[in-house]
Amino acid sequence: MMIVTTLFLISYLSIIDGQYLQMLQTVQSTINHNTATLSIMLQEILRRLPKDQNIAALREVAFGKRTKQSSDDYRWPSVAVDGNLNSFSRTQVEHSPYWEVDLGRDYLIKRIDIFNRKDCCGDRLHDLYITTGPAHNQMYPCAYYKGPGRTGEHLVFKCHHSKYARYVKLVIKGKESLTLAEVKVYAQDD
After folding, report:
1. Which of 3, 13, 137, 159 could be cross-linked to 20 through a Cys-Cys bond (beta carbons 3.0 to 4.6 Å apart)?
2. Pairing between strand 175-176 and 182-188?
């Protein structure tokens, strides 16, 4: 209703000696000026905020690293760390399918992002255990995701333990196919 009223008002105003055009130009100029002023104010506020030295910078450490998974269903595990959200890794339907990345050295892992497939099958991601560790026989829980996931979903998991890890492993408990578009592992910058 408000749109119809506004259109009627605009039509009426445009008839009256071109005053509508002048008024519209004035409003647009004011909005542009206010937007620029707010942007400058925000930049100044951010510049003046004290930097917290206790907040560590995180960097992504899994891109292009060596991967493996419990089985291959015409999709290789390495595509889950290739930076392309349109590709995906996939295991066969099996009991406790897993995917793992070897980071090459130990990192203090703080966060793991998982991107679900964009085209279908998001609900396959469920009952997911995420573990990290310095060796295959020393894996520690990072997070658990009950699910089910949604197609195209971006999930973020924070690892609250303070353990260094070289390996990140994702395991679905139960019979399923583990499908991942992308996995990003964020570690504290040394």
Report:
1. 13
2. unpaired
Whole-number pLDDT of residue 160: 81
Query: Are the C-beta atoms of residues 80 and 88 closer than 8 Å to each other?
Result: yes
- 58-188 maps to CATH 3.40.50.300: no
Pairing of strands 154-158, 182-188: unpaired
Dmax (CA) for the chain in angstroms is: 82
Q: What is the dihedral of CA 138, 142, 146, 149, to 10 degrees?
A: -110
> Region 36-41: what's the mean pLDDT?
69
CA angle centred on 100, ends 129 and 139, rounded to 5°: 55
Strand (E) or helix (H) holding 107? strand 98-115
Q: How far is CA 90 from CA 74, 80, 123, 131, 176, in A?
A: 7, 9, 14, 19, 10
Question: Using CA atoms, how far apart are residues 28 and 25, in angstroms rounded to an integer?
Answer: 5
> What are residue 140's DSSP bridge partners?
132
| pLDDT above 90 as % of the chain | 61
Q: Phi and psi (nearest 5°) for 136?
A: -60, -30
34, amino acid identity: N
75 DSSP assignment? B
Helix spans in 16-168 (H)? 19-48
